[in-house]
Amino acid sequence: MPELPEVEVVRRGLQEHLAGKTITAVRVHHPRAVRRHEAGAADLTARLLDVTIIGTDRRGKYLWLNLSDEMALVVHLGMSGQMLLGPIPNTGHLRIAALLDDGTTLSFVDQRTFGGWQLAELVDVDGARVPEPVAHIARDPLDPRFDREAVVTVLRRKHSEIKRQLLDQTVVSGIGNIYADESLWRAKINGARLAENLTRRQLGDLLDAATEVMREALGQGGTSFDSLYVNVNGQSGYFDRSLNVYGREDLPCPRCGTAIRREKFMNRSSFYCPRCQSKPAQPRPRR
After folding, report:
1. How far apart are CA 28 and CA 34, in angstroms?
2. Virtual torsion, Cα 248, 251, 253, 258, nearest 10 deg
3. Average model confidence (pLDDT) for the chain?
4. If 0-12 CB within 10 Å is exposed, 13-18 middle and 19+ buried, where does residue 236 land?
5. Are the C-beta atoms of residues 79 and 151 closer than 8 Å to each other?
6. What pLDDT does 23 receive?
7. pLDDT score for 119
């Protein structure tokens, strides 16, 4: 699933090409792509007709287009969703197409059909206007108003593995499995450690590492392991070449040379260095 850097790459591309454009026609090619819009495909297409796209916005992994009728078009990318401009290579995966007043076609392509479009009202949350379905999502580390110390305070109260908390989008948004593992490695913290047992300094350093790694990934177009993660022009990012632990099982740790290990975690895989990121001590059984 695309994480913050990949979604931000898409958002920037859409902002550049869509701001000020008016939608002149919409066609839904697959009903699953509008299943979150409870009023259905006919309602969504009718309400988008002749609406101007004011701009784009994002919180964490969530992306939306701000519209002239003061509504938001929330784009759920899911596992494989793509927002593409111009001709598309595989029309078999086309789910929604919108024609703009400059003749350009905006296509939502989704091989696995987990994503889709949804019209939603904007609401005021924490000093920002966000779509109602996104209201529960916390600010992300690249947000100018991200409160690092407030998040540290929240984490210090959590009796749960620190990696689980990094993945909780209501605590801190935008961090997925890839960047959680990379951030934990940079901060020399094992993801199995309890958040409440880490010091404020350790938690702050971890959030700084997450900010750093996602900024670096954004500068390289995000992480693309296959053709599913692309920008609006269909181009892949290349931050996967800079990953230190994720996907590098049995390869040497770039810092100490120890073989990277992989373990199952929440139906995913966790990658870590057993030397740099020592596991928490197991409590001794009571006699």
Report:
1. 8
2. 130
3. 91
4. middle
5. no
6. 98
7. 98
Predicted TM-score (pTM) of the model is 0.90
What own/partner pairs with CB < 8 Å and gap ≥ 24 does 196-202 have? 196/155, 196/156, 196/157, 196/158, 196/159, 197/280, 198/155, 198/156, 198/162, 200/152, 200/156
Q: For the purposes of burial, counting CB atoms within 10 Å of the CB of 54, is it exposed (0-12), middle (13-18) or buried (19 or more)? A: middle
What b/e sequence results for 133-167 when a residue is b if at least 16 CB atoms lie within 10 Å of its CB, and e otherwise? bbeebbbbbbbeebeeeebbebbeebeebbbbbbb
Show the beta-strand stretches assigned E in 103-150: 105-110, 116-125, 128-131
Quote the tokens at residue 25. 């026609």
Q: Look at residues 132, 5, 29 and name the one whose alpha carbon lies nearest to residue 74.
A: 132
Q: Above 60 in pLDDT, residue 238?
A: no
Distance CA 36, CA 275 (A): 45
At 8 the three-state DSSP class reads helix
Q: 66 Cβ partners below 8 Å, 6+ apart?
A: 53, 54, 55, 56, 57, 72, 122
Residues annotated as catalytic (active site), given as ranges: 2-3, 61, 268
> Which two three-digit tokens encode residue 181?
């593992």
Contact 177, 4 (CB under 8 A): no
